[in-house]
Amino acid sequence: MASSERSHAFPLAGGAESRPPEDPRCDACNSGLLRRRRVDMAFWSGGRLVLVRDIPSLVCDACGEQYTEDEVAMQLDMMRGADFRHAQMIDRQEVPVYTFPGGRDDLR
Length: 108
Ligand SMILES: [Zn+2]
Hints:
The chain is 15% helix and 25% strand. By secondary structure, it is α+β, with helices and mostly antiparallel strands. The protein has one domain: Roll (Ubiquitin-like (UB roll)), CATH 3.10.20.
């Protein structure tokens, strides 16, 4: 698969838990067709932000919604459960951190 087909969305919550609908149409927009793509997803694991590349997924060609099949989601859960200790680390990235405007003031 060409790398240009890879989606670069990074869902942080529930990214690996949305199951594909039974028919090939997207449940989110009801119009797009789902296509097999490799996507990157980020997860919080043991206080670290972890990026997993090239996850087999179904991606809506209209709205971009991503679905993960059970087998892949189970594999991701196992990787997360082991805090990625047995996964091969291929790269490191620096992650910029921002605060929402006024967000810190609300805490005082
Ligand atoms: Zn869609």
